[in-house]
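Field log, afternoon session.

UNIT: design team B
ACTIVITY: writing a sequence onto a fixed backbone
BACKBONE:
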């Protein structure tokens, strides 16, 4: 049990409130008050929210002004220069997207089709197929196959399979392109009929093979 401090009785013990540790505690508490939120009554909570809103709007305005000022541009230029130093594209008008964009693909010499004489080309093939004895069902197979290959367009090129013209000539499979093949529907048809006869025998057999492989 401790004896209470009685200075009026000549007690020489110092009051704890006057000790150095007491003064330090008071100063520490005073400093911490700067970081503690103000204690408000229930009626003042609305005012607190208003103050927070005003501070938020003010901070947003400052950020916007900094972004629109030359400070932002200077910072971005500095970052770009540092990136360029470690192997990026040269610091000019070229952007990273422009620098990494692949080159344009090579275009086919024939273009994408557009021949409007499909019916005429179909009639030429029908007359030429008759000379081989390919009528009725055989002609139906031939018509179906070349219709799906090219739509009877002698200028078309299939970018997926690499086939050319009405008859689906493929340089990677069939070798060198015959003379006049590129500009003549008749030359294409004559080559196609001859190729079918020597390789498959009949259009229906060629058509059956093409349906499963998309080539012949």
């Amino acid at each position: 049990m401790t004896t209470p401090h009685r200075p009026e009785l000549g007690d020489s013990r110092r009051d704890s409130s006057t000790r150095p540790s007491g003064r330090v505690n008071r100063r520490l508490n005073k400093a911490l008050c700067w970081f503690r939120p103000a204690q408000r009554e229930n009626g003042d909570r609305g005012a607190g929210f208003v103050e927070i809103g005003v501070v938020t709007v003010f901070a947003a305005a400052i950020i916007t002004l900094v972004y629109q000022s030359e400070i932002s541009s200077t910072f971005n230029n500095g970052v770009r220069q540092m990136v360029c130093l470690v192997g990026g594209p040269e610091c000019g008008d070229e952007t990273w997207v422009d620098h990494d964009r692949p080159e344009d693909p090579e275009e086919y010499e024939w273009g994408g089709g557009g021949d409007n004489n499909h019916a005429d080309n179909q009639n030429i093939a029908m007359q030429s197929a008759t000379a081989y004895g390919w009528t009725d069902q055989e002609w139906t197979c031939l018509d179906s196959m070349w219709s799906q290959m090219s739509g009877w367009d002698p200028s078309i090129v299939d970018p997926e399979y690499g086939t050319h013209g009405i008859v689906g000539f493929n340089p990677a499979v069939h070798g060198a392109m015959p003379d006049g093949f590129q500009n003549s529907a008749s030359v294409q048809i004559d080559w196609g009929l001859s190729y079918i006869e020597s390789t498959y025998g009949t259009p229906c057999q060629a058509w059956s093979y093409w349906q499963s492989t998309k080539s012949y």
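LOG NOTE: Residues 85 and 91 are 9 Å apart (CA to CA).
NEXT ACTIVITY: expression trials, pending approval
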